[in-house]
Design a protein that fits this description.
Layout (H helix, E strand, L loop, with lengths): L14 E6 L6 E5 L3 E6 L4 E7 L4 E7 L4 E6 L3 E6 L4 E7 L7 E4 L5 E5 L20 E5 L4 E6 L5 E6 L5 E6 L3 E6 L5 E6 L4 E3 L7 E3 L1 E6 L5 E7 L12 E7 L6 E5 L7 E9 L5 E10 L4 E5 L5 E5 L2
Antiparallel strand pairs: 1-2, 2-3, 3-4, 5-6, 6-7, 7-8, 9-10, 10-11, 11-12, 13-14, 14-15, 15-16, 17-18, 19-20, 20-21, 21-22, 23-24, 24-25, 25-26
């Protein structure tokens, strides 16, 4: 298994989100300038299907390719009918921005997470949320199905492969998992290895779990971000990922990145290969040998790292 560059396509703005469209060769791209693009990678052509007033942070395809959904730093979710090429719903869902948005594998659920880090006490711990940090929508109706509480800011969210469970994680390394049908939180735990307290220039918390993904069998959860650092302004914590088995009542850490395999930087996104034998993690690098890595899902060992 090897990562090779097959094609490079230039678009007008930096891409913050990317999604395939079911039953189509086209892709959806959410962009730094707020635009949402529908892109054909074969012809390398694209067109804008929507526009947010701030960064478009996430995009996905729903109902087996019939709809596209996007969310942004404007706190708005937009629903787009891909068959008629029209935006059918625009709704303000967060007072703050949408950090991340995901569509469930069965394409029927959409989740968005939010939250602003505000000082909650003299230890600079985050203040409690003033709005639900996680919102789940029914793609069939575009209506709110669930609102889940968490300690803000909640940076990442993800559905299990069977679409039965939803996980979300925050800046402080708190992870929660809910059952979508019942709406009940069934697991919660903390990992301290993604959060830092700055003692140089800025005295506050920084970091967090920036993305997460369930394993193909749904029993494990992999998280990624940046390890502890002393200077929050430098952004030079170590590239970090951890895996947890949450199938038992008390989740257990089963794997994490080898210290010899990581450089310094923020890991912001990860996903499993469809065959389930490997997962890919990528982000920004300050120092090191790679900013995109392919790792074994069985051992956690680095298969290949590339600097692009």
């Amino acid at each position: 298994m090897k990562i090779e560059l097959a094609k490079e396509i230039k678009i007008p703005s930096a891409a913050l989100g990317l999604s395939t469209i079911q039953k189509s060769n086209d892709l959806l791209v959410s962009c730094f300038d707020g635009s949402v693009l529908k892109l054909n990678p074969v012809t390398e052509s694209w067109g804008s299907i929507a526009k947010h007033s701030s960064y478009a942070s996430g995009v996905g395809s729903c109902l087996h390719g019939k709809l596209a959904v996007s969310a942004g730093y404007d706190g708005i979710i937009q629903w787009h009918d891909l068959q008629i090429g029209k935006t059918i719903s625009v709704e303000k869902i967060h007072d703050f921005w949408s950090w991340q948005m995901k569509v469930s594998p069965n394409t029927e659920w959409v989740a968005s997470v939010t939250g602003q880090y505000k000082c909650g006490g003299y230890k600079y711990e985050p203040a409690p949320e003033k709005e639900p940090s996680i919102k789940v929508f029914d793609a069939k109706t575009q209506k709110l199905a669930h609102s889940f509480p968490h300690l803000p800011p909640v940076l990442s969210v993800g559905f299990s492969p069977d679409s039965r469970h939803l996980a979300a994680a925050n800046m402080m390394g708190d992870i929660k998992i809910w059952n979508i049908e019942s709406g009940k939180c069934i697991r919660e735990w903390n990992t301290p290895d993604f959060t830092s307290w700055g003692i140089i220039k800025s005295h506050h918390y920084i970091g967090g779990i920036f993305d997460l993904s369930f394993s193909p069998d749904s029993n494990r959860l992999i998280t990624c971000g940046m390890g502890p650092m002393r200077d929050p302004m430098a952004g030079n914590g170590k590239q970090t990922w951890q895996e947890f088995d949450w199938s038992n009542d008390k989740p257990v850490k089963t794997h994490e990145i080898e210290d010899s395999e990581r450089g310094r930087g923020l890991m912001e996104t990860l996903c499993f290969h469809p065959a389930g034998k490997a997962f890919c993690m990528a982000g920004r690098m300050a120092q090191g040998n790679w900013n995109t890595a392919l790792l074994s899902s069985e051992t956690g060992n680095l298969i290949q790292g590339i600097d692009n």
